[in-house]
Amino acid sequence: MRIAIIGGGLTGLTLAYYLQKAGVAYDLFEASERAGGNLHSPYPLAGYQLEAGPNSLLLSPELEELLTELGLADQIQEAAPVSQHRYVLRGGQYRALPASPPALLASSFFSWKTKLRLLGELLRRPTPPVPGETVAAFFARHFGPEVVQYAVNPFVAGIYAGDPTELLLSLTFPQLAALEARHGSLLRGLAKGPKATRRRTITLRGGVQTLTDALAARLSSYHSGAAVSAIKQLAINKYQVASSKQPTASNTTYTNIALALPAYAAAELLRPLHPAAAAALAAVPYPPLTLVYSAYDRAAVGHPLAGFGALNPRVEGTYSAGSIWTSSLFPDRVPAGQVLFTSFVGGSQFARQAQEPEAAQLAAVDAELRRLYAISEAPRWQGRYYWARSIPQFGAHLAAARAAVAPLAAQGIVAVANWQAGVSVPDCVKYARQVAEKMGNEEGRSSC
Length: 448
Fold this sequence. Notes:
Radius of gyration: 23 Å
Structural class: alpha/beta
Strand order of the largest sheet: 6-5-13-14-15-12-16
Number of domains: 3
Mean pLDDT: 94
CATH architecture of the largest domain: 3-Layer(bba) Sandwich
CATH superfamily of the largest domain: FAD/NAD(P)-binding domain
Number of helices: 18
Distance between the termini: 13 Å
Shape: globular
């Protein structure tokens, strides 16, 4: 048994790591010279440690175990305690988003009409899932349009760079559909369930790319700068691949192909073999997204910045979807006496802004930050990172893509990218580990 893993992002690297631990032979092919995919920590620029992908990590048990095995436990850096506070723009002012239902009822963030609806939600009876229901429709049914506009919409834009009227509940928050089916009321179901443990918000010294760099360094069969141009199927569970380092299909035969690629890249490789599945993958949207970094003297910023950051609901008509207060989370990432904002421009709801020229983006974000945060001086430094295709959208097209590739597993082709595993780092680590364990068990059975 030998497995070809195509794509050296987090899921591909993690899959290879656990296969190697289990003694399963593999080759991992990565097109670029840099490992990590969306986990990208550009070298410090002008004294600022930047992130082009995830700005922080939620420490799940699987992720913590992996970091320990890689010898990175001493590189973990905890976010400042203020990270538990989130802000949302409402009426042109940033207001703290209540962290619990009781706090929400006691605050003035939502109207009395919405608060009464929240109380009425406790009386809902169990109902079966609504097929094809969107995130916006689900929350509107339970809590009304104000919650969708000022809580759900900005949250979805911040996590998925998406639009809750397009994302499917079954793909994004399946646990909520299960709560409704069992309890009817989400609030009652959450109250009856086990108390959720707040996961630690962390980063790694040197940036989150430290994780994928460490994984790549541990792998014995990792091939960088080796773009795969074709997959040749000899029989079921018998494949060869051609890469830029081996232009024609090599003599190595693989029993499995693991696609750790964006959906659109996987589509190109599958098109000659499985055109219907390829067409479904190619249809998955990946909206453009720009990260704009803006640093100011702390004395010039009137806002206290005591939190993780702030989100901008679409209804507020802003230029950006919001900002992470990077220097509030990790003060050592900026020069002393300065603050750093990481602002998000683009996604499904702000796609036009994401594709504007760099100078226009920097100027617009600076103007917006100055207005919203009472900033009195020009930035000390600005920069940006542009993703032409950012996060896969967990909507109807992705559901169709998953359904189309599922039967290919019987022929030895599996998907392990974030559009299959989930967009978060813990989701990707957990899913890749599960796939590795399954493949390792299959190897054990085949050798008996």
